[in-house]
Design goal:
single chain; 257 residues; alpha+beta; Beta-clip-like; 2 domains; 4-stranded antiparallel sheet; elongated
Length: 257
């Protein structure tokens, strides 16, 4: 009896989607947006970002227009939009949005959206990389003037967007919320072993900071580092990057024993 062969492949491409309750429209001189053509109730999934999953290094090789149609889904993972613009690519940023993140790639209505309203979300809900920093002209009363990679750290946004951050950003928020300073004794233990076992010394120190006694080095660096280059250097155990990290942990230690 013959046995049929099976294979499992890793899906790296996600299809783009825009709700039929909205249509894309041009926003001169070069932009695009999406506008409601019917009432959209709160909680409705309005768009899904499609594209191909890429690391930062590969993502950086593409042109600026295509990179503008993307969304960050993890520390070193970005969904790059398809070669040609699709309807779901046309959701703009606003500092006072009517939509938020349901998951890593799907946008949901945060409130009822009336006919004629543009669908928008705040990029701070999903992105934490400098590739998507820009001067903002959304024109709302809450406009920040510039969208930055670390806007998700703003207390006002954390409160305003509770429940509407992507899983990646929410994970970083929770890690910072529960992070504690090292005690003097913790720092002394770290420095005592750093010269001979730098990875072990820093890993143990970061585990104490985040209250995660079994976390891997990769997980800890994802929570600690701010930018892809910094993450890459720490993961490759770059000496200068490790020295900077141990110095930062030493300088910000708590006053306790």
């Amino acid at each position: 009896m013959s046995r049929a062969s099976t294979s499992i492949s890793l899906v790296t491409t996600v299809q783009n989607f825009l709700t039929p309750l909205a249509v894309p429209f041009g926003t001169p001189p070069h932009g695009f947006g999406s506008r409601a053509i019917a009432a959209i109730p709160v909680g409705t999934s309005v768009a899904t970002f499609g594209g191909t999953a890429l690391t930062h290094a590969t993502f950086a090789r593409y042109d600026a227009e295509r990179r503008s149609r993307s969304i960050q889904v993890d520390t070193n993972l970005i969904f790059l939009g398809p070669p040609k613009r699709e309807p779901g690519d046309s959701i703009n940023h606003s500092c006072e949005p009517n939509c938020g993140m349901r998951n890593a790639t799907t946008i949901i209505a945060m409130r009822d959206i009336a006919i004629g309203e543009e669908l928008t979300f705040d990029y701070a809900m999903s992105d934490a990389s400098i590739y998507d920093e820009f001067d903002c002209n959304c024109g709302t009363a809450l406009c920040r003037g510039r969208v930055r990679a670390d806007d998700w750290r703003l207390d006002t946004l954390r409160h305003r967007y509770t429940g509407f951050f992507s899983p990646y950003i929410q994970r970083r928020i929770e890690a910072e919320r529960h992070r504690s300073l090292l005690t003097k004794r913790d720092v002394e233990e770290m420095l005592a072993t750093y010269d001979t076992e730098p990875l072990m010394a820093l890993r143990n120190a970061l585990r104490k900071c985040f209250g995660m006694p079994h976390a891997t080095w990769e997980t800890l660096i994802e929570l600690m580092a701010k930018q892809p280059d910094e993450i890459s250097q720490l993961l490759s155990l770059n000496t200068d990057a490790l020295d900077q990290l141990v110095g930062a942990l030493n300088e910000t230690r708590g006053a306790g024993l």
